[in-house]
Amino acid sequence: MRIVKIETGEVNIPLVTPFKTALRTVDCVNDIIVRIVTEDGQEGFGEAPPTAVITGDTKASVKGAIEEFIAPNLVGMDIENLDGVMEKLHGCILKNTSAKAAVDMAVYDLFAKSCKKPLYKVLGGKRSEIETDLTISVNGIDEMVKDSLRAVDQGFGILKIKVGKEGLKDVERIRAIRQAVGPSVRLRIDANQGWSPKEAVRIIRKMEDLGIEMDLVEQPVNAHDFQGMRYVTSQVYTPILADESVFSVEDAIRIIQKRAADLINIKLMKTGGIYQALKICGIAESFGVECMIGCMLESKIAVSAAAHLAAAKGIITRADLDGPSLCREDPYEGGPVYEGSKIYMNEAYGLGITRVPGFF
Ligand code: MG
Predict the structure, then answer these.
(1) What is the mean pLDDT of residues 328-337?
(2) φ, ψ (nearest 5 deg) of residue 307
(3) Closest CA to 127 of 350, 316, 339, 341
(4) Active site residues per annotation
(5) Is the pLDDT confidence value at 337 over 80?
(6) For residues 243 and 280, what is the distance between their CA atoms, to the nearest angstrom?
(7) How far away, in angstroms, is 84 Cα from ligand 1 center?
(8) From the CA of 349, how far away is ligand 1's center (Å)?
(9) Is the pLDDT of residue 230 over 90?
(10) How far is 344 from 130, CA to CA, in rounded Å?
């Protein structure tokens, strides 16, 4: 199965409500999509969002990296030589992790199709169902309470609350949400680097003292401040999850060795795809550090690639794969089924996406 063509397109899907974090506000999923075609006419699909504030990638940089560097290096290679293709993909251009992720997942899609199996089974997985949280954007308290209640009504038992823009006022946000949703809903708090280390300890301890149960607090401080992450992790009871601090395998090792977080958030757009994500899973497994699988503002192609990885790896104990739930429509055919908080894997080969109508 030699690669004969790698081409890009662009998808534009409006969101149900604007997505707001401490870093940005976005109202649609506007991503680059990739199609790889092999000599026997098989198609593999990939997707990458332009998350400039986190990965540094823009639509033009993703497209440019794929068309100018990755495609010329990969065309002609055999999909069944998976390691060779991956070494070439990760070696032909530095950084550009989102572009690499889009191509990586399309290659895995084709590889699993060549095995005539769904990707999660090729990766060794047996789990056919995943529970995801739903993100509550950072807004005024009343609006966040309303959004949280609506999510619980829709069947979500885990909410990911975005904070980090107003310091100590975040305590009021979380307290109001906890009171409104009751004790059975799990709350994950994501500050997106919005607090200083001392501020983070003060805020988290205050919530702990008020008896507000939290599943975890994600990326409380600046991504590069490993000392700060370590300080926060050592000073609070609630588990701390590293997100923006961990892109690469090396970052994961550093965070674990420094005990700078209790948990690691793997996202394909940070790792450059499944190949490197599997290495992080292996390291996390060896240290007994549980992982969450997350996504950026991605639609069903990229989120499904993450879902296949999550279904395959026991060390991934938490899923934040709400991209398709945040989208107003689903423009693709096939793939895992997203029903409220549940993602159901199926027996379709590869990622399972059969058609990307209107683009390719
Ligand atoms: Mg995060």
Answers:
(1) 95
(2) -65, -40
(3) 316
(4) 162, 267
(5) yes
(6) 13
(7) 32
(8) 30
(9) yes
(10) 7
CA dist., res. 255 & res. 265, Å (int)? 11
28 secondary structure, DSSP code: E
Q: What percent of the chain has pLDDT over 70?
A: 100
The Å distance, Cα 187 to ligand 1 centre, comes to 14
Q: How far is the CA of 164 from the centre of ligand 1 (A)?
A: 11
Please tell me whether residue 184 adopts helix, strand or coil conformation.
coil
* pTM exceeds 0.90 for this model: yes
As a whole-number percent, the residues of the chain with pLDDT over 90 amount to 96
What is the spatial distance between Cα 22 and Cα 131, in angstroms, rounded to a whole number? Answer: 25
Could you read off the pLDDT of 6-27 as tens digits, one per residue? 999 999 999 999 999 988 899 9
Distance (Å, whole) CA 326 – CA 360: 24
Using a CB cutoff of 5 Å, list residues around ligand 1, an ion.
190, 218, 243
Local confidence band at 292 (pLDDT 50, 70, 90 cut-offs)? very high
Q: Give the distance (Å) from ligand 1 centre to CA of residue 291.
A: 13
Q: Is the pLDDT at 360 greater than 80, yes or no?
A: no
Does position 69 have pLDDT exceeding 90, yes or no? yes
pLDDT tens for residues 86-134?
999 999 999 999 999 999 999 999 999 999 999 999 999 989 999 999 9
Q: Which residues contact 123 (CB under 8 A, 6 or more apart)?
A: 274, 278, 308, 309, 312, 313
Residue 256 phi, psi dihedral angles, 5° rounding: -70, -45
Tell how far the Cα of 68 is from the centroid of ligand 1, in angstroms: 30
As a whole number of Å, the CA-based R_g of the chain is 20
Residue pair 251/266 in contact (Cβ under 8 Å)? The answer is no
Cα(240) to centroid of ligand 1, in Å? 11
Tell me the three state secondary structure of residue 139: coil
Whole-number Å distance, alpha carbon 124 to ligand 1 midpoint, is 27
Alpha-carbon torsion, ordered 88, 93, 96, 99, to 10 deg: -50
| C-alpha separations of 107 from 51, 76, 199, 210 in Å | 22, 13, 44, 49
